[in-house]
Amino acid sequence: MKRMAVAAVAVLAGALATTVSPAAVAAEGPSAGLLAAMQRDLGLDATQAAERLRQESAATVLQRVAEGFAGESYGGAWFDASIGKLVVGVTDEAKTDRLRKLGAEPRTVAHKASDLDAAKAKLDASPAPAEVTGWYVDTRANAVTITVKRGQAQAAQALVEKAGAVAKVVETDEAPRLFKDTRGGDAYYINNAGRCSVGFAVAGGFVTAGHCGSPGDTVTGVDKTAMGAFEKSSFPGNDYAFVKTNSSWTSTAKVNHYGGADVIVSGHTESAVGASICRSGSTTGWHCGEVQAKSQTVNYQEGSVSGLTRTNVCAEPGDSGGSWVSGTQAQGVTSGGSGNCTSGGTTYYQPVNEILETYGLTLTTG
Asked: Has residue 61 got a pLDDT over 70?
């Protein structure tokens, strides 16, 4: 009976493992972009990329079968690209021959996958010192690897004791941080007080309204974390500024649509008088209208600004600095105006092309 069960599992594994052939991969059509990325990043040609996809698909199916067969002795599994096969760890050496017959490459390991998971769960419930950058179940090493900053291995001692014999400490030069998007229309805060809106992301930061801040003023992002500082600003006369962002923020071509999919900016070709135009801002969101006039001088109480574009789009305080787009073309950043988004109004924007040219900036496009 036992031989019959093993034979049945072998037949099942063989059938499942061969369901994905090179022809099937081609028929399902891995995208040209996927194959190109694999060639670029994994050093493969098109045929090798397609073959690897086939092998990985077979390994994914086989993993479920192999884990069930290994039972309590299961020590984890991983795909080994060098042999094109699934490697399965087991603590019971008696199961290696049968795993090989299933199509897997067996490895005898010291620790069960369940023990590794349990040890990691203990660490997840523990406070971590600043020198420890993380931990994970390292299937290939059959261990729970704890990563620490270079030269700070001793800081992980308490965690090692908690994890037990499965723990492994690795020093690293990596310093993990969150990656955040700089997106047009999102809020940002000046000196932890006033609020304005991001205009457009450019290489190294973003453009916004000059009246929002002066060089040296610090900026926090929509999530209230450090974002950077005003590096250049012009107001009155003009109304534009450049904020240099720190390494946690990534410039993107996105503009917040507030309720819809982000608009992806593709360029900065200036639209004509009479063209439709839309604005994104952190107070009132997304509003549209038409371009009414160009090169207007506006006399604010704080001083005159020339070269602005007049629109019949509404805006309110806090929208300042936000994005203006016509289709997917960047147009400018909000300066000021009159009225509000309840009764309507007139709003002016500073054309983005002047900002880019004056400060020598490159707009982020998608």
From this structure: yes
